[in-house]
Known about the structure:
The chain is an alpha+beta fold and 304 residues long. The chain has two domains: 7-125 and 281-294, Rossmann fold; 132-273, Tumour Suppressor Smad4, CATH 2.60.200.30. Helix content is 15%, strand content 37%.
Amino acid sequence: MSPPGVRRLEGPIRSVAVVVREPSTEITEITHRLQDWLTRRDVSVVLEEVDERTGAGGTSLDIAHNPVDLVIALGGDGTLLRAARAVVGTDVPVLGVNLGRLGFLTAFPDAELEAGLEIVMAGEALLDPRFTLRARIEGRDDDNAGNLFALNDIVVHTSGAARVTPLTLHVGQGESWEEVGSFAADGVILATPTGSTAYSMSAGGPIIVPGVECIVVTPICPHSLAVRPLVIPAAQRVSLRSLDPDAGHQVTVDGQVERALAPGGAVIVSREEQPVRLVRLPGQTFFGTLRRKLNWGARPPERA
Length: 304
């Protein structure tokens, strides 16, 4: 049974953009293999210009002004996260081809490239909409202050030497805010359900099924036994503010994009109205991936 919102990827697919992992011989060979396969089927291909990436975690693709029917990410989950930022505000789906170790978000490995693409081109693949987040750094007026998009998570932590830092957490809806509390920790992870199986899970946060729309607040190594992860309704905003007037903080998005948070500053996180649509194959489910990739609930071998 498919989660609510999941539907088929209906064609036709006439144009494809390709986002790649860092250059290597393997990447070059697979990219040429993909390009040849698509060209033989009269599908135009736009390759990411690797040498012109717009900083860490950026991409040269401009999907908003040069639309395509599909974005293919060749790499692991990190490459897919970068591809997701290229389609923000559009309906363009993202297909992940796993060349990495885990590939939790990808649809299939490169060994199944042609077979997987046949299913996609035949209109049998599924679109899985994923809840996403957007952050605004209070007090910054530049373009980057309110343009932080996350498919996985937004992390607030100290910059420089690792140390415990005091933070205060508020939640709000409309014009009203309510203080949740203040605590000392190494930082805080604000994760989507998609990101609940990433950094948040490693820090002790809950696993959230992607069909659930919410924000997961996971303190990193809190200096108190009373501080535990929280699950916040998707309609609410979350504010994290530094209480240390001397500490410099960092906001890290999906482990790839970094912005400075001034002493005493705050980051405001809310849902992004436009979800990212990931492509998956029929029969590929969240729980199946959880068992296969993360060994969730795997039984030990039976005794002889």
